[in-house]
Amino acid sequence: DADVTQTPRNRITKTGKRIMLECSQTKGHDRMYWYRQDPGLGLRLIYYSFDVKDINKGEISDGYSVSRQAQAKFSLSLESAIPNQTALYFCATQGSTDTQYFGPGTRLTVL
Amino acid sequence: AQSVTQLDSHVSVSEGTPVLLRCNYSSSYSPSLFWYVQHPNKGLQLLLKYTSAATLVKGINGFEAEFKKSETSFHLTKPSAHMSDAAEYFCVVSPPGTASKLTFGTGTRLQVTL
Question: Cβ contact (<8 Å) for B42 and A104?
């Protein structure tokens, strides 16, 4: 079984809808991250969490919110989706080493 | 501040020939450097990392990279390409010690032809 899972894997929605992307991990890591990937731009950090009570904004947090429900779960919400939020979204985890482990990604399309 | 530049957006090689993916970085400190690979419809997988130990770093699947401080480079190489190496490769820089603030390059797509 995968250590970092993301649901859904694909989602098509309409402008103005609220969307939640979920991330779960079985690695026992405290640190979790949400990134978005756009063609030609690499990955950019949206939000990160060092533990359940610690949430931090990344470089592109506007239009997004997160919830760390437990050590193993970190959700990303788009309160009112817009077309330029169409992207590939990745969750990642990190333990005590300097390596981040990535989930398989969620492809989100906002029409 | 930190940044990373991948000099080629697309590289095409023949199977069995060497691979060179170029990466330059900018950092106000001695950084940690990583190469990640992304196969189609998959998440990112760590290939190798440099964290101020040996300057020549060996990774998985025969890849290696050399940290050159004087040139601010961290190029990825492999002596002989395999079809399964076709993927997108990301050079990544972070402050030393924590790797919690990763800065990604824009990626290099490697194509391997017969």
Answer: yes
